[in-house]
């Protein structure tokens, strides 16, 4: 016997291991898949962002800068449309009013400036001026202000042109004569292949900034332009626009995209960083997944141990009972299926002990046995539907809905467990209905509107237990749920007939309703005494309530059904008027 118990105990441990392994697979496998998907998605998003930034920089931003420089070149090139102006710049003499050459030169310069300003594709021009071969300004044009060009400014422009080997260049000047940052396009004017002067076009730097910064859309991004030697000419952050640019000295781990611009005269850099929010989210997701894995391990072990522990204890008590110890009992500490099995085992052991010892003879009347059987008939049917709802919600949602359903179901089950209390107050039965409707509205998200019309004096009256919930359930399942359109309404009304000393309760719905043969069949079954052998699943709840009311209260009482196809159904209960104090006196 001892060896057999040991073998069976090993089987119990095998069941525990199987449950633990199954729960680990069910929890950790989805977590592993989820972490892989999240990691792949984040990595793929970063690659897409980098490719998008590379395309915008190497094509869109570079194209905009090239087009801008090309427009400047086209604008400056218009000076060659007037050969006499080029010649006059080369052989410039002092301007005299009666000297026709100098007069024509000034006129040509003014006409050239006006033509450039009116026809150029370049926007936000704030000034233009010409410097001749003798390093003097021979003409200028300022649309809105008249700054004084200093000799030092001319020398700086000439030095920059010579340093660029007399090629067109862009200069970014943040301390200009105009009191605002500007861009200077210095265009060497040539005559017979030799430099003969400079055409300088001053433009607002803000236009160029808007032109390039519209492509700067990534986190902490910066646009930088340098010459071939790395000297910074333009920087998104003006305070950093001095000195040489060295990508290797950038802080952190930036993304750097570089390309040439302006026909190779400029180096264009675009630098941006990963958004800290993305990094934080990624880290938190990994932390949550790791914690979930740990919790899954702990929860799986605890749950598997908790499930099998009472089973092992019950098995040991069964062994004692098998050996003749009829006083063996299981200590029940839960209110679930295992607790139910424990209670049933205790009841079975007690019954066996009582039968063997002949200490107790069970004496129940037929009426009481039938009442208990009818009352117990309701719970399995509804409990099955509720557990199915809990399973569906647990699969889709996380915790809040499941918690609410569990609380409501616990309240209902606790209410059903007190089967000895045949009479309860109306308010307790109503609370039982509310718990049921909480669960129903979770099963069917479209919702059912409920209205209670019960006077305060009626709430303290006593009625047989569990007579309203089957009727409400029948109205919901067979009346309101099949209804496809419109609002779903349920009304519960209670009233007193003082002369007849009777309590009337009606359950009214605006569901699909009944008529014809189904309605006649239901009304006929209510008028006959089917007891526990009522025909049809749809009418079992109403027949149950009707039979119980007649057994407890007498033949004159019961329920009646009124219905109309497409309009709804009304179930009327007729009960004796009984105060709660009367029930307590009867019990005492």
User: Which range best describes the helical content: under 10%, 10-25%, 25-40%, 40-55%, 55-70% or over 70%?
Assistant: 40-55%
The fold-level CATH name of the domain at 366-587 is Heat Shock Protein 90
> What is the strand arrangement across the widest sheet?
2-1-5-4-3
In DSSP terms (H or I, runs of 4 or more residues), the helix count works out at 15
What's the gyration radius in Å?
A: 47 Å
The chain-level structural class is alpha+beta
Average pLDDT level? 78
Q: Spans of 5+ residues with little confidence (pLDDT < 50)?
A: 93-100, 359-366
Could you give a short account of the major beta sheet?
5 strands, antiparallel
Instruction: Find the CATH superfamily of the domain at 366-587.
Output: Histidine kinase-like ATPase, C-terminal domain
Question: What is the terminal separation in angstroms?
Answer: 51 Å
Oligomer: single chain
- Reading off the top of the CATH hierarchy, the class of the domain at 366-587 is best stated as Alpha Beta
Descriptive report:
It contains 15 helices and 16 strands. With 588 residues, it is α+β, with helices and mostly antiparallel strands. Among the domains are: 82-204, Beta-Lactamase (2-Layer Sandwich); 216-274, no CATH class; 366-587, 2-Layer Sandwich (Heat Shock Protein 90). The strands form 4 sheets. A 5-stranded antiparallel β-sheet has the order 2-1-5-4-3, with helices on both faces. The protein has a 5-stranded mixed β-sheet with strand order 11-13-14-16-15. The protein is elongated.
């Amino acid at each position: 016997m001892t060896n057999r118990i040991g073998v069976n105990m090993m089987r119990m441990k095998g069941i525990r291991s199987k449950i633990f392994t199954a729960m680990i697979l069910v929890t950790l496998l989805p977590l592993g898949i989820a972490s892989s998907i999240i990691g792949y998605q984040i990595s793929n998003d970063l690659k897409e962002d980098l490719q998008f930034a590379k395309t915008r920089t190497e094509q869109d931003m570079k194209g905009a800068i090239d087009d801008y420089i090309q427009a400047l070149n086209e604008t400056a090139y218009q000076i060659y449309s007037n050969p006499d102006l080029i010649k006059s710049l080369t052989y410039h003499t002092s301007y005299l009013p009666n000297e026709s050459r100098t007069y024509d030169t000034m006129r040509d310069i003014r006409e050239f400036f006006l033509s450039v300003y009116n026809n150029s594709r370049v926007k936000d021009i704030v000034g233009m001026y010409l410097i001749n071969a003798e390093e003097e300004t021979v003409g200028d044009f300022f649309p809105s202000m008249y700054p004084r060009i200093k000799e030092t400014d001319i020398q700086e422009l000439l030095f920059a042109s010579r340093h660029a080997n007399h090629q067109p260049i862009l200069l970014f000047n943040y301390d200009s004569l105009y009191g605002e940052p500007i861009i200077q396009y210095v265009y060497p004017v040539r005559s017979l292949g030799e430099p003969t002067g400079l055409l300088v076009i001053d433009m607002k730097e803000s236009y160029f900034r808007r032109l390039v910064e519209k492509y700067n859309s990534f986190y902490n991004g910066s646009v930088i332009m340098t010459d071939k030697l790395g000297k910074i000419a333009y920087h998104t952050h003006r305070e950093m626009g001095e000195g040489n640019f060295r990508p290797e000295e950038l802080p952190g781990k930036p993304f750097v995209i570089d390309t040439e611009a302006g026909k190779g005269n400029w180096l264009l850099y675009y630098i941006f960083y990963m958004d800290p929010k993305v990094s934080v989210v990624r880290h938190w997701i990994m932390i949550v997944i790791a914690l979930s894995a740990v919790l899954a391990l702990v929860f799986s072990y605890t749950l598997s141990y908790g499930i099998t522990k009472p089973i092992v204890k019950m098995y040991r008590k069964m062994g004692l009972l098998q050996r003749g110890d009829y006083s063996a009992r299981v200590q029940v500490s839960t209110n679930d299926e295992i607790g139910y099995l424990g209670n049933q085992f205790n009841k079975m052991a007690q019954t066996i002990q009582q039968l063997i010892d002949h200490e107790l003879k069970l004496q129940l009347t037929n009426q009481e046995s039938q009442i208990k059987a009818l009352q117990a008939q309701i719970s399995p049917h509804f409990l099955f539907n509720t557990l199915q709802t809990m399973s569906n919600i647990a699969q889709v949602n996380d915790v809040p809905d499941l918690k609410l359903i569990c609380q409501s179901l616990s309240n209902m089950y606790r209410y059903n467990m007190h089967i000895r209390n045949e009479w309860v107050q109306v308010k307790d039965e109503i609370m039982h209905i509310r718990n049921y409707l909480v669960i129903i509205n979770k099963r069917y998200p479209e919702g059912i509107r409920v209205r209670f019309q019960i006077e305060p004096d009626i709430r303290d009256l006593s009625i047989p237990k569990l007579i309203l919930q089957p009727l409400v359930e029948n109205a919901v399942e067979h009346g309101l749920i099949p209804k496809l359109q419109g609002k779903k309404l349920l009304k519960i009304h209670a009233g007193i007939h003082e002369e007849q000393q009777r309590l009337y309760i009606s359950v009214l719905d605006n569901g699909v309703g009944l008529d014809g043969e189904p309605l006649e069949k239901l009304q006929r079954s209510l008028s006959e005494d089917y007891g526990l052998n009522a025909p049809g699943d749809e009418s079992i709840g109403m027949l149950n309530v009707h039979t119980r009311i007649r057994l407890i209260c007498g033949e004159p009482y019961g329920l009646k059904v009124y219905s109309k196809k497409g309009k709804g159904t009304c179930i009327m209960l007729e009960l004796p008027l009984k105060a709660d104090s009367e029930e307590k006196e009867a019990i005492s």
